[in-house]
Amino acid sequence: MPKPRSVTAEVESILGPAPASYAQPEAAVLRFRRHGRRLVPPAIAMLAAAAAAGYWVGALPAVWMNLLAAAGAALLGLLLGVLPVLAWLAHRTTVTTRRVIVRRGLFVHRRSEVSLSRVREVRTRRGPLQRLRGSGDIELLHGAESMRLEDVPGVQVVADALRELMERNYEHATRLQQRLAAQVGGFGGPGAGPGAGAPFGSNAAAQSDPGF
Questions:
Q1: pLDDT in tens, 28-43
Q2: Shared domain check, 76 and 132
Q3: Is the predicted pLDDT of residue 152 greater than 60, yes or no?
């Protein structure tokens, strides 16, 4: 009894093998957080709170006043120092060979991503202070929407890498669509079914997330 063929084998027998961009596993290219200068204000706030606590705590006449001063300094250090640092750590960006993934949020985690094959333009914006630090903002335009990456360190290097990945993904997607259109036309044209024009592998990232 002949062994039944897998769905993948059946698809490849009709459409041919998947292009290299989808046959190869998705890999992380870049991981970064916003520029480290955002840690300067929290560090100053924590030093100021520690200095104020060292000066006032123990110098006040009543015990409850010293406790109140210590609690106030600890609260200020937490709100102005510790929480901003944790928020900076929680905001991170991952660039893979197919997607840009942004995670943010300290208590409520949010995740947004865009496929590089949909990105049509990579824009950069750098203010005077950002130019001195070598950082800047990157805007990824995809259709009528956009994704903004704020205060990216080494912005020029990151933007160049994104442009190269964007071009490669777009070229692969364009060639695949042309190939599918030609093959679907050969199998009966409009009667091939509603899903015939969808690029093979276009939902690969959505169906199997490797955990980026």
A1: 999 999 999 899 999 9
A2: no
A3: yes
Q: Which domain, by its residues, includes 181?
A: 7-34+93-185
pLDDT tens track for 45-65: 999 999 988 888 888 888 898
Taking the mean position of all CA atoms in its chain, how far away is CA 210? 14
The structural domain count of the chain equals: 2
Contact 33, 89 (CB under 8 A): yes
The answer to whether residues 54 and 114 belong to one domain is no
Domain membership flag for residue 97 = yes
Cβ atoms of 112 and 147 within 8 Å: the answer is yes
Q: How far apart are CA 160 and CA 88, in angstroms?
A: 24
Interatomic CA distance for residues 177 and 172, integer angstroms: 9
Q: Is 142 exposed, middle or buried (0-12, 13-18, 19+ CB in 10 A)?
A: middle
The reported pTM is 0.70
CA dihedral 192, 193, 195, 196 (to 10 degrees): 0
Q: Where do we find the tokens 């109140």? A: 68
Range 4-19 burial, b when 16+ CB lie within 10 A, else e: eeeeeeeeeeebeebb
